[in-house]
Amino acid sequence: MSDGPITPSGPASAGLSRRRLFGAVGAGAVLAGAGAVVGRSTAPSGSGDADVVAFRGEHQAGIVTPAQDRMHFVAFDVTTRDRNELIALLKTWTDMSQRMTAGLEATENGATGDGAYHPPSDTGEALDLAASRLTLTIGFGPSLFDDRFGLADSKPAALEDLPHFPADNLDPARCGGDIAIQACADDPQVAVHAIRNLARVAFGTASVRWSQLGFGRTSSTSTTQATPRNLFGFKDGTNNLKAEDPDALTESVWVADTDDQPWLTGGTYLVARRIRMLIEQWDRAVLNEQEAVIGRDKREGAPLGKKAEFDELDLESKGPDGPFIPVTAHVRLASEQHLGGIRILRRGYNFTDGSDGLGHLDAGLFFIAFCRNPLEQFVPMQLELARSDALNEYIQHVGSAVFACPPGLRDGEYWGQRLFES
Ligand SMILES: C=CC1=C(C)c2cc3[nH]c(cc4nc(cc5[nH]c(cc1n2)c(C)c5CCC(=O)O)C(CCC(=O)O)=C4C)c(C)c3C=C
Ligand SMILES: [Fe+2]
């Protein structure tokens, strides 16, 4: 692993990975060296360092990291008013997160090693699972910068609660939060285990305000990935920003040192919207209507009037009945051509939370976007969509939040260190 020390305070030798521990114990094997998976009959396919994403680096993982298949997103309210208690929690979270993203237990031997008379400090359900490309990404909400922790002067100018958009139907219980943590992994149990253990250790300092599970990514964030489909059956993420385009990321995602608060340089903003998709209504719409609403064809994902998925979106091209891409089509209204060059990095997930008690699926898109300035990028884009998008007949925004995500951690740093110590 190229990940540096296991904990900010401790040595790199802190422990066996979850899978190595099982291998060594199960077969009485001797570890053969870094990265080895030894004597373990239950080794998950694909396990190995390839499924560890580095926790530290210039930017946080989980932003341009090729989108994993599963997500567990949580927003916390900080319940203490003691700044030092909050810092202590952030340090503990950093230790645990670095361990879990490396495929280790949240604490060393925490599932069984704390003694028979203590609740285990790792809940155990990921013991025999690989790291599964787990990433944990933290963000700080506008409410954290009130008068509780002495952070008011460090509040970034662009970190404002999002305005009310036309037709928003927001549930306050699904909005806001002082701190968010996004867990993404290729195994749902690994993502859920990570959030569960971070929430557990926060008891008395922070409590869960809301959370959302997501299955099935709805975006590609790398050209190496095939474009997935959303619950309306359309390819989603075709015209997304991609990791392989660093100039575009510099322009539209990463906060520059001239932009805002110094602690946020190299960071970004995360916008989350829980968007209910009215599945039954959509399923009654004819294909022609569905394609006109999106502005792309359903099978290939090509812009209407074109043939292939990655053909250029040409808003001017016309057929006998007018523009190929209708004036109310989703992709037209969200495009950089229409919005004067505005772009965002989308990284959302499909969700289905059963049915709503009226026989309708409670399903949709947990929309996540990363951008350099939400007031100048997400807000005008969403305003345009809320006003004119044909998709509005089939969706409803029910949750909303925005967070400032600090840059990646250097060796020895804890989450939020540059905010609290600058
Ligand atoms: C405010 C930003 C956006 C919201 C909210 C949003 C919701 C949303 N989108 C789809 C389905 C598709 N979106 C597509 C493209 C697309 N969407 C946005 C922004 C928001 N979408 C952008 C910036 C783009 C790219 C536009 C462009 O320049 O071409 C597509 C087409 C495929 C693709 O390029 O990704 C689909 C399909 C749903 C269903 C939805 C809410 C539930
Ligand atoms: Fe979209």
Automatic annotation (TrEMBL):
UniProt entry tagged with the keyword S-adenosyl-L-methionine: no
EC number: 1.11.1.-
Location within or outside the cell: Cell envelope
Keywords, comma-separated and alphabetical: Heme, Iron, Lyase, Metal-binding, Oxidoreductase, Peroxidase, Signal
Reaction equations catalysed: heme b + 2 H(+) = protoporphyrin IX + Fe(2+)
Cofactor note text: Binds 1 heme b (iron(II)-protoporphyrin IX) group non-covalently per subunit.
Domain Dyp-type peroxidase N-terminal span(s) in chain numbering: 60-215
Its job: Involved in the recovery of exogenous heme iron. Extracts iron from heme while preserving the protoporphyrin ring intact.
Identification of the protein by name: Deferrochelatase
Source organism of the structure: Rhodococcus chondri
Gene designation: efeB
